[in-house]
Amino acid sequence: MVGLKEELLKSIWHAFTALDLDRSGKVLSHNLCTVLNVPHDPVALEEHFRDDDEGPVSNQGYMPYLNKFILEKVQGNFDKVEFNRMCWTLCAKKNLSKRPLLISDEDAFKVWVIFNFLSEDKYPLIIVPEEIEYLLKKITEAMGAGWQQEQFDHYKIALNTSREGLSAWELIDLIGSGQFSKGMDRQTVSMAINEVFNELILDVLKQGYMLKKGHKRKNWMERWFVLKPNIISYYVSEDLKDKKGDIILDGNCCVEALPDKDGKKCLFLIKCLDKTFEISASDKKKKQEWIQAIQTTVNLLRAGSPPPHKEARQKRKELRQKLLAEQEELERQMKELQAANENKQKELETVRKQLEAAAARAAEEEKKRLQNQVELQDRFSLELEREKMVRQKMEEQVAQKSSELEQYFQRVRELEEMYKQLQEALEDEKQARQDEETVRKLQARLLEEESAKRAELEKWHLQQQQTIQMTEAEKQELENQRMIKEQALQVAMEQLKQLELERKEALEQYEEVKKKLETAANNTKSWKDKVAHHEGLIRLIEPGSKNPHLITNWGPAAFTEAELEQRQRSWKGKKATSE
Questions:
Q1: Sorted alphabetically, which SUPFAM superfamilies does this protein's record hold (predicted)?
Q2: Hey, what CATH topology would domain 206-305 get?
Q3: Distance CA 294, CA 279 (A)
């Protein structure tokens, strides 16, 4: 019931958008109840559409009323063609193009119904280019003409650049313009549209004349058979006015070929639970086609599968959704890769700036280190010069002291000589000893002064050695700092190279994803071609004629003899007029 409700909503949506519901909502509701065989509820109708805040233009609106009081009560026992014709009547006058078309209003109505069947399940309703191609191919094949794929590809490119698809009225204009049916007359186009309408909307899987054996009188009568997903109806003629009966199909039915008997050929048997039907086809080919078509229908009933055209439509829709999801996923991955690439670029730029800043700091520190080293060398040079001058002064003092010591030794010798001389004089002995004691004290004092000078010289020498050692230590520490900074710079350069490699890998991944996207697009086109080719191969056999089999330019059994004679008279009249 959900699928039925969606199909009904599409037709109602056209009528809903074409009417002024403030004035025509009751009319639409009444007509819907009539054609859908839904009991009228005058109280709910008047209550919903009274002129107050609860009217159709309020927050409650028309659609809740439609769902609650009409669509939820639909049982499926209504005429779909009559329902669609009612909705068409309400919306066609306002939306149908005023310019002349190559198709009649009845054909436009059928195209509108087919549009509702093939359109997407979103509003406003549109039919996508893939479904447009499918419909035009079906109509072209029904006309017996060749499909112009290149012409449609140009049209599709022009359509995709402006919008996603066509509305129902634009589709009617496209088919009515004759752009894809050039060289075909109105009758041929009308017959093709009717054939596609019967297949897609009325679920006519096969139809044609065959002989049927009666159950009571056992006589053979020619009947027009129409095969649908769960029933075979047979009529007196193909105008479908005088229906003679139905053959109800289910999973228990079977169809079998019979040998020729009683002068009847191409026989086959349809077995149901309560009855058995013997039927004779016009030839072996028709017999095999009918047996295969009926058996396929029974198999679908056993499997609970929908008719082939509905199943194909669902598969095309699922394929579009899958391709759309894959395309969105690829676009998402592309965006993620682009974002990751941008982040990598930003990281590389940040690292490059950090390396430049680190290199600048290292250069500045190296400059400062060299400057400090020059300053230290200058300071050490000054200290060495100062120390050299001090050493020179000390050497001069030592030389002076040595001279004084030599003089002292000379004096000692002189005193010794004097002592010898004083020894000779006994009377001067005491005075000589006192002088000697005085000289000895003076010598001791000089020795002490010499020791103090030597200690001071050693102290200066030790200070000089300590100063030299401190200079060497500072120089070694500065050299170690320079080596550490050079190592840090080398590590940063290696990190930069690693980031460059990662950026190249990200670019390679981006190229791979881009190639995958192109491959997915090529696969999508290949699948579309395969689906189009598959759909082109599934074409139902046109109904045959009661008259003898004819071969014309439009194919086998395309026209009856009466139609062919009428066409020949038309051609002769046109030829006489032109002459």
A1: PH domain-like (SSF50729)
A2: PH-domain like (2.30.29)
A3: 12
